Amino acid sequence: MKPWETLESANVPDVGELTLVRRGDEYVLRVRGQTLMSSRMHGSEEALARAGCADLVSRGTGRVLVGGLGFGYTVRAVLDQVGPGVRVSVAELLPTVVDWNRGPHLAPLAQAPLEDPRVTVIQGDVGLVMKRHSASFDTILLDVDNGPSALTHPDNQGLYGVSGLGTAAQALRSGGTLAIWSAGPAAGFERRMEKSGFTVEVLHPHAHGTKGPRHVIYVGRLGKSRR
Q1: Would you call 80 helix, strand, or coil by DSSP?
Q2: pLDDT of res. 156
Q3: Is the pTM of this model over 0.85?
Q4: What dihedral do alpha carbons 162, 167, 171, 173 form, nearest 10°?
Q5: Which residues contact 81 (CB under 8 A, 6 or more apart)?
Q6: Mind listing the pLDDT tens digit for each residue in 107-122?
Q7: pLDDT at residue 82 above 90?
């Protein structure tokens, strides 16, 4: 078996060592030696985009906020699904991840979604972005860390508490959708979303097409009477 080749590495404050490695055609991002994501398993990220943006497919305009860039697969799936009038903002906490997605190793994986003119990259905390934009987005997709059980940064846990979910609800327009990716089931999370005003559907897509482990997507929709 071929050894892993280190392509990029960086020591990120409050996070630790971030490394991008490759073996054959597989790319892996590691945080403090732990695998955070692999280029071979992105089917559930694409399912996140499909579920969250379903209401925008037939519309000519709209605004989408993606929290967490990863390898760019979620953003690419959004762009492939919505029309030319939809604008996509991507909030990524780690500038290193943004730089690597624009570089020669990662950009080709998802067909360079950051080069699409519909996309704006916001370097920062998606929670703060939501607080600054009241009733601004039709869809919010959160693919931050490992979902409600945060791994990379402890502040990410605040996105998934009652306060964070309330912030997401306030950032959405009437009838908007909040879709959240999770590596696995999170006890009590569906009920927490319901308390924040969402009607919730739980999906269990495969990590890769029809194969591999199943991840979890929580899809919450706000009633139009809420505002």
Answers
A1: helix
A2: 59
A3: yes
A4: 30
A5: 49, 50, 53, 56, 57
A6: 999 999 999 999 999 9
A7: yes
